Amino acid sequence: MADDLYTRYQAARATWSTHRETCPPCRSEQHCPTGTPLYQQLAALQTDYLRRIRSQGGPR
Length: 60
Known about the structure:
The protein is mainly α.
C-alpha cells in the first residue's frame, strides 16, 4: 500500500523528533545507543519514500 510507506516514514520522524528533544547527545548529532537506530530507521524510510516519489515523476 502506497500510504503505508508514508505513514511509517512520518511515524519514524515523530519518534525520532520526540527522542531528540530530550537527548543531549542526539541534539548535538552524536547519537546515543537508543537514538542511533531511530535515526537510521528515519533515514532509510525517508530514502525509500523520496525514491518512490521521484520514480513517479515527483520533486527531485
